[in-house]
Write a structure and sequence with these properties.
This protein has 145 residues and is α+β, with helices and mostly antiparallel strands. Strand 4 and strand 5 form a beta hairpin. 27% of the residues lie in helices and 39% in strands. It has one domain: Archease domain (Archease, Possible Chaperone, Chain: A, domain 1), CATH 3.55.10.10. Helix 1 runs parallel beside helix 2.
Length: 145
């Protein structure tokens, strides 16, 4: 999907942080959620589109798929220090995602301090659709920090 400005609202809850966002499609909701997760740690405008990583994630529900997807993005950072700036889905059917993530390896001098996120969990996860509007798909995600 083409790049667009990611708009999300940061959420704070006790020892956790998270985000709430809306998107025009379910596919875009998953893409924007991964980019919001990255932006919470390192601002997207500081990331260059240099490297690529391909991922495949499968789950039995849209909620579990979102959690697995976001944890895969976290894993790429933990294992490879990879920060995505752009995401292209080559398959998305609500139960699986096959995607190419485009970005670069973390550089502490250029990117600054990274907020540590341990995991994305089902705790307080909300997903759904709004009755009207341009961005009628929404997600509210909390992160274990």
């Amino acid at each position: 999907m083409p790049e667009r400005i990611i708009s999300y609202q940061s959420l704070d809850h006790k020892a956790d942080m998270g985000f709430h966002l809306q998107a025009p499609s379910l596919e875009r909701l998953y893409i924007d959620s991964a980019l919001a997760l990255t932006d919470l740690s390192v601002k997207l405008e500081r990331i260059n589109s240099i490297d690529k990583h391909d991922v495949l994630v499968e789950a039995d529900s849209k909620e579990s798929l979102l959690i697995k997807w976001l944890n895969e993005v976290l894993f790429l950072f933990e294992r490879h220090k990879f920060l995505p700036k752009r995401i292209v889905f080559t398959r998305f059917d609500g139960k699986s995602i096959k995607a190419t993530l485009i970005g670069e390896t973390y550089d502490p001098i250029r990117h600054g301090h990274v907020s540590e996120v341990k995991a994305v969990t089902h705790h307080q996860l909300e997903m759904g659709t709004l009755p009207k509007g341009e961005n009628n798909f929404y997600a509210k995600v909390f992160l274990d920090v």
